[in-house]
Amino acid sequence: MDLTIIEAIQSVRTDFFDGLFNILTQMGDFNFFIVAFAFLFWVYNKIFALNFAINYSAIAVFNSLFLKNIF
Fold first, then answer.
1. Which residues, 6+ apart, have CB-to-CB distance to 41 below 8 Å?
2. Is the pLDDT of residue 24 over 80?
3. Stated pTM of the model
4. SS3 sequence of the chain
């Protein structure tokens, strides 16, 4: 069962996604958040970027403070 799941995930891999996920792994989640927020703020929409930042921060706090202590 587990092997079929891994094989299914590996069957859709591409060089682009390998590079993208390698960069995300090397950067870390906090640096990715900063880059995503800056891109959204300057390029897309300022209100959307602020909502993204608030929601992302709230989820990160909820995850680290509550869920990790519960489980």
1. 49, 50
2. no
3. 0.47
4. CHHHHHHHHHHCCCHHHHHHHHHHHHHCHHHHHHHHHHHHHHHHCHHHHHHHHHHHHHHHHHHHHHHHHHC
